[in-house]
Amino acid sequence: MMNGSTGRGSGGRGRVRAVSAALGLLAGALTATTVGASGATALTPPVAITADDLSTWQTNGIVWSMAAGDGVVYAGGTFSTLRPPSAAPGTSEQSAVNFAAFDAATGAPTDCSLSFTVSSGTATVRALALSPDGETLYAGGRFGAVNGEGVSNFAAIDTASCTVSNTFKIGVSATVRGLAATDDTVYLAGDFTTVGGQTRSHFAAVTTDASLLPFTADADEVARAVEVTPDGQNVLLGGDFFRINGTNTHALAVVDATTGQLTKSYSGFIHNNSTVQDITTDTTGFYTANEGTGGGVFDGRIALDLSDFEQRWRDTCLGATQAVLVHSGVLYSGSHAHDCSSMGAFPDQPRKHLLAQSVDDPKLLPWFPDTNDGIGEPVGPRVMTRTSSGGHDYLWVGGEFTTVNSRPQQGLTRFADGPDTGTPWVPNVSLSTLTPGQIDVNWQTSFDTDDGELTYRIYKDGSNTPIHTTTGYSVFWDRPQLTWTDTDVAPGETHSYRITASDGTNTSSKSPSQSATVASTTEAYPARVRADGASLYWRYDEGVSTFAHDSSGNLDNGFMRNGPAYRQTPAAVAGPSTAIGLNGSNEYIYSNRRHPQPDRYTIETWIKTTTSRGGRIIGFGNLTQQNSSRRDKHIYMRNDGRLVFGVQSGGTRTITTSGAYNDGQWHHVVATQGPFGQGMSLYVDGQLRASNILVSGNQDYDGYWRVGGDNLSGWPSRPTSNFFDGQIDETAIYPTALSGSTISAHYALRNG
Questions:
Q1: Which contacts (CB < 8 Å, 24+ apart) does range 256-263 have?
Q2: Which of 430, 432, 429 is nearest to 440 (CA)?
Q3: 341 φ/ψ angles, rounded to the nearest 5 degrees
Q4: What does each C-alpha distance from 354 to 64, 106, 332 come to in angstroms?
Q5: Nearest CA to 633 among 659, 667, 597?
Q6: Are 587 and 561 in contact (CB under 8 A)?
Q7: pLDDT tens for residues 102-145?
Q8: Phi–psi pair at 527, nearest 5 degrees
């Protein structure tokens, strides 16, 4: 893929010199409901930049490159106009031909205006780098003139006067994609094969007066990134190449800063179908942004030590990384990450474009602003830079995107070290009274885009003084259930509860009031389910929310997707509980917790339907927000109403009931899998209806329990619909294969 490389004022690319700037526009650009001291940040360390995007001017095309210093951000790319932050495309535009400069603190353009053009084809600025003293901005790309001054894909601009040098001229035969500048040398990376009329394959170095240096690091494929180590002794190279100066080293290399000879090669270190798109450094390490094409490739980020150039860590998220930047011990990155399950984070789902990690640990930190993919390829962010102004740090992002944090914003956005104005989501609350003389207050932890640790306060019976305060950690793919038990109640009393979530500065609204009447006796059915060892137990007693609370005591709550019908009555089991209704097209529930493959288990639920389109009732799958690619250990209904229990074990293995159960009545459906000799069993209404004692295995993958729908492609007698149209109640999962007598006992308690 085509990509630009960053130029930034750090790690050998130029010193950032802060100047004073008024921040009134910054404060006015941020609005939210806040509680606490004005301007205080509420970030989870080591994150030091909020996820709240600031008011920033926009481009009408792609921003490929940026550099920053002296409170000014320079942006280059393929665009022709700028427009104000809230302006729609085509309105209030002003000319900016592939280049613009901005006040870092306000996001508004400065009066520095340059036009990068080419006689034929499309001009573009793919690389920008400031000299260490900030006096010269070097620009590379595909262009033949800057403000009419003839150049050849490479130019130098005086930052004080915003004028192109008419003496810094050297011919570069093709596009320049990466630049790095020291006090006396400028390094180039790109598509070119000659510089100044001499052979230089994809990497080169020139003096600050544009004289070609003997530095030779010839690559066999396109170069995309170049960075000088902080000590100035070596240069870090990234791109598509497989050889440097004839030596095998794919996508990454370290070479001597004077000669270009290899200091460290990386043969076999990066997948052959992956490339390095960007490189950045700090005082101890360097970090790569990697992009792959095809299956099984490497798309994530690598941290390496400068002391020996060996790997410190790598992540394995899928979704090509385009840009990396270090600030205060955190590696910020721009990508279109869509699957980080291999490193214990989110499974395959819609893309996330901005992420953060500690420079010492690949675990994703709680920093989740987002863009869309945008135009072009499209992949979203392409470049990052940072600078300081007026005592604040600013992180700027450029790329192909046309939205930021779900609002229209094209080409550019920026974030700062404060104030943090993002309010956590309002908690989802559910009450239960399974034990006489107490009320369990259950809630799904909230989400905040730049805070993982949130504080929850519970308010009882309309009081404005919290009765209980606690904290919990959550990120968008893992919002575990929290529970507090109120024992200061008496049987027969009715009490109400509301909960807030706070990041320390911003506090959510109180959740809608939920009421419950204290039980005076124990309900027989749920008591037996819990006594028999359910590890997940959803009763579906919630109101309108995304939360299915877990009554098993294991806090394995569920996410309800696409607004199913809540509090359906009569429920499957006698008592105050309710059921949930699903529409058969897109509504389902999945477990918050990701589980390893269960080898012995029981799946239990109640169903009521008249559908003739079948559907998946309950099972195990590897994905949550889309149909799973790996799925088994499931029960589904055929179009004729018969039930199927299936696993993958050396092929597809299923057992099927002889009778139909789409008669509009509640039915108790249980599937178990045990060791050889017990195998697969399918019970309906307390009776064994089908079995295969020989099948004791199932497919090995980590996954989620899903109720109401998932992919049924390839399964026998596949129904018309992947989703179940009907009511579901009392879903439980057990880590053992329950006996037939236990299952019959559960069914017998339906009226208890």
A1: 257/185, 257/215, 257/228, 257/229, 257/232, 257/233, 258/215, 259/214, 259/215, 259/216, 260/203, 260/205, 260/215, 260/216, 260/217, 260/235, 261/216, 261/217, 263/234, 263/309
A2: 432
A3: -65, -30
A4: 16, 22, 7
A5: 597
A6: yes
A7: 999 999 999 999 999 999 999 999 999 999 999 999 999 999 99
A8: -65, -40
